[in-house]
From TrEMBL:
This is LYC1 C-terminal domain-containing protein. GO terms for molecular function: acyltransferase activity, transferring groups other than amino-acyl groups. CDD domains: NAT_SF. Residues 1-27 are annotated as: Disordered. It holds the Pfam family Acetyltransf_9. Residues 193-393 form the LYC1 C-terminal domain. Transmembrane segments: none annotated. InterPro entries: Acyl_CoA_acyltransferase, GNAT_LYC1-like, LAT.
């Protein structure tokens, strides 16, 4: 989804100021939601035509992470006007997820679980841009989420979004920018078949049937990792559970079915024996159509090293085999590159040893990972663990 506020193109003098008490943050009707989707089609549809884009947005309300109140649409509008006759001054959506944090370290570590909200599809109708409505919406939303869907449970731990307009706009509303880098690999047709005598035999494709077991194990490994981390910072993470991965993969299936008439069966790859494995799960994104592969990306959602104590040199062959499958899939599915967000120091060391060509990129303007903290500690004391693509929305 991403979070984008384009530059102002017009203004409407009769509308209330962004600081007006007559503005409210509320939920759109079905017609208002569809109206907004039609406006965002040109910005976010990629290779989808308008009908398919509208169908995708409706479909994404039904997938496991989003259904039963998991996905909520928000609008900023004028109080007192009838629904379907009021202006949608700015809009966005939130996706409820599960998060975890630890304070302290080792035997004294204190673990807390709770809700986390991902924010996406931030948009202002061109008619209403340049009046500060998106800023007003985000400030109200940040405060609203402290108690939203809380019931009798604890307040949310934090919320995240991914800015496509740099670091400052959302920081002013309370979402602090975090590390936003990636390693890029080029697609290579047939890369997974080139070393039949060695490393590629280590890796096997991951499909839907393997995901449940791997995600369950990943959550256990993450919990153990957070507890082991040293005191002095609060370590936070979004849990890489199955529903979180399915949100990406089911979205991918809808898109690829529309534009290719088929869906990919290879959702990742795994190498090694249980307890010593390394694996990656990925998804494909089509941001600029199919006339060229430019802008289309195979995104690695998550990389897992089961045994973090294993020396890097023992993991190199398995990692290379996994990435060769990714490169092959990237070539087959018309993407420009393979991206792996914010690899850990361990994975970065393996990348540098694996012999595959890669480029390291620090992002300054696009997909800036940003976090609004609801705890008592200053944001400088918060360490976002596993700041990878699976957390994006």
């Amino acid at each position: 989804m991403g979070s984008t506020i384009p530059q102002a193109t017009s203004s409407t003098a009769s509308l209330p100021d962004a600081s007006s008490p007559n503005l409210i943050l509320t939920h759109p009707t079905s017609a208002e939601r569809t109206r907004t989707w039609k406006l965002t089609h040109a910005k976010w549809a990629g290779a989808l035509n308008e009908a398919d884009y509208l169908a995708r947005e409706a479909y994404m309300m039904t997938v496991p992470l989003a259904k039963n109140g998991g996905l909520t649409h928000w609008i900023l509008t004028i109080a007192g006007l009838p629904p379907d006759e009021r202006p949608v001054l700015s809009s966005c959506e939130t996706l409820r997820k599960r998060g975890i944090l630890t304070r302290g370290g080792g035997d004294g570590a204190r673990v807390q679980e709770g809700m986390v909200y991902g924010i996406g599809s931030v948009f202002t109708d061109p008619t209403y841009r340049g009046k500060g409505y998106a800023s007003r919406m985000m400030k109200e939303l940040g405060a609203k989420l402290r108690d939203w869907q809380r019931g009798g449970s604890s307040p949310p731990l934090f919320s995240v979004l991914y800015s496509d307009i740099g670091k400052q706009f959302y920081a002013r509303a309370g979402w602090a920018p975090f590390a936003s880098s990636h390693v890029a690999f080029k697609p290579v047709s047939g890369a997974a078949q080139r070393d039949q005598g060695s490393s590629t035999q280590l890796a096997k494709p991951i499909g839907y049937h393997e995901l449940a077991e791997l995600c369950c194990l990943d959550e256990k490994l993450m919990r153990a990792d957070l507890v082991r981390r040293p005191a002095g910072k609060t370590h936070v993470a979004l849990i890489p559970e199955l529903d979180q991965m399915l949100w990406h993969l089911m979205r991918e299936d809808f898109i690829t079915k529309c534009i290719f008439g088929r869906t990919p069966t290879v959702k990742g790859a795994v190498a090694g024996e249980p307890g010593k494995r390394i694996w990656a799960v990925w998804t494909r994104g089509y941001h600029n159509g199919l006339e060229t592969s430019k802008g289309n990306t195979l995104h690695v959602l998550r990389v897992v090293v089961e045994d973090e104590k294993r020396p890097e040199e023992e993991l190199v062959d398995g990692f290379r085999a996994v990435m060769q499958i990714a490169q092959t899939e990237a070539a087959e599915w018309n993407t420009e590159e393979v991206q792996m967000w914010n690899p850990t120091p361990k994975v970065r060391g393996i990348i540098e040893r694996c012999g595959l060509e890669f480029e390291y990129v620090d992002r300054d303007t696009s997909s800036i990972a940003s976090l609004k903290w609801y705890g008592d500690e200053p944001i400088e004391e918060v360490d976002w663990v596993a700041n990878e693509k699976y957390a994006w929305c």
